[in-house]
Amino acid sequence: MLIGKLWSFTGPRSYFVPFFRHFYNSPNMAKSKFEYVRSFETDDTCLRNCYIVVRLDGRNFHKFSEQHGFTKPNDNRALGLMTRSAQSVMEELEDIIIAYGQSDEFSFVFKRTSNWFKRRASKLMTHVASQFSSSYVFYWKEYFEEQPLLYPPSFDGRVVLYPTNRNLRDYLSWRQADCHINNLYNTVFWTLVQKGGLTTAQAEDRLKGTLAADKNEILFSEFDINYNNESALHRKGTTLLWKKHEETVIRRMKQPNAEEKEVPVTRSKRRVENLYCDIIGEQFWEEHPDILEEDNC
């Protein structure tokens, strides 16, 4: 009908010329001429049957924490904001089966069978990084209230593949061991500064060459602090999991030949749960057998 009406138009010929010039020069008609540039893209598809881990790290967060007045050695506001941002990522990408975070980093583990973004590493990493960064800015005021965000934070990311359950567990164990090492050092360091009256240079010099036992001894003998009684959040980091829970809602329903009435309906839903526990030992994995998929021989 449209073509018939156009050709039946009795106006001057100049009316049709712009129309057809636009039609034949449209992007759709010229697409094949330029789409060769796609051949320059490299294939970054992640290998099948592997867990995909996307790890984010805060870029230059030492400076960022100083300029925003983070409490030393641990700022619960900052840790809470990191966790909230990670929850946002998991809620957006439901193929993430577990996430682990400490300090200014978070690792997200995609299940082996995930086909999000056709398993393209660049797509997965950029989506996780952008969702996390935007959430960090979006939820800032909920955690820092009157403290203004002076400039946008940034996070770099990487993608690593782990083919076996043992590989994945060792990776997560490595990150939690790193949390323990860093937090023990920071706890002793800032205790020496804040309670011991040392300068940062003196505290750093005092801790040179010390082992974990030495650091624990300094805390206990000089400041009556038992490191094992410190917050599990600080010592163990944060683990995020999907947990099923029952939810009861009231719905108005009408039965045949009966009046409409309110009826309780129970349904199962998934939500992200925070845990502050050991993930290196066997107990955690025995309590959550649904995280890992069976290794293929």
Task: Give a quick precis of the structure.
This protein is of the alpha+beta class. The protein has helices at residues 2-7, 16-24, 27-34, 61-67, 76-92, 121-138, 140-144, 165-194, 200-207, 212-223, 232-236, 282-287, and strands at 51-58, 96-102, 105-110, 155-162, 238-254, 260-275.
Description of the structure:
Helix 8 packs across helix 9 and helix 8 (165-194) runs parallel beside helix 10 (212-223). The protein has helices spanning 2-7, 16-24, 27-34, 61-67, 76-92, 121-138, 140-144, 165-194, 200-207, 212-223, 232-236, 282-287, and strands at 51-58, 96-102, 105-110, 155-162, 238-254, 260-275. A hairpin with a 2-residue loop joins strand 2 (96-102) and strand 3. With 297 residues, it is of the alpha+beta class. It has a six-stranded antiparallel beta sheet, with helices on both faces. The termini are far apart.
